[in-house]
Amino acid sequence: MSHDALVLLLVIGAVSLALAPVYWMLPSPRQRQLARLRSHALSLGLRPEQQPLPRVLRAAGYAEDMVRYRWATPLPEWPDDGPRWLAFIDAASGGKQERRLVWLRSRGYSAGPDTLLVALEETDIAGGPVAVEAGPGGVGVYWHEAGDCDQVDRLFSLLQPWSIAYRDCMANPDSSSLTQG
Predict the structure, then answer these.
(1) Are the CB atoms for 164 and 76 separated by under 8 Å?
(2) Which 3 state secondary structure label does DSSP give 77?
(3) Mean pLDDT of residues grouped by 10 in the chain (181 residues)?
(4) Phi, then psi, of 101 in degrees rounded to 5
């Protein structure tokens, strides 16, 4: 091997070693997708939050890597106090066609209006919402982030009736729209 070829190989190797960390730090396609989804969510007023799942969801076998998209105090006159609602897909209910949403009725949670469950069961959102909750901290959805910004728009529109129902039920706790649990 000639001297010039050896120098060229050394230069190529040195440049490769210098550029490798730069390429390693570039976001993957999945990271770019998540950044777009989360940026769009923030523009709508939703806050993507990495936090531990409620214990009941972990016990049902859901992965702990889900993100909650939360809409904090979405409406005027949002209650500072009150029970929390959590509706989730019953893991024992089977596949997507047979999925059944249920209210958690323990550990500080109570049931909300069943009309919210019907609307939630009919949603067709990529990565499907696994659970929706409402409480004094706002309304939120646990979701396997998938799809595009249209999916975030659909999640946002899903949370609007939840926020209205929660606010109205907390303003009138004797409302007949609540299920007893």
Answers:
(1) no
(2) coil
(3) 85 86 85 94 93 81 84 82 85 59 82 83 74 90 89 90 89 59 42
(4) -95, 140
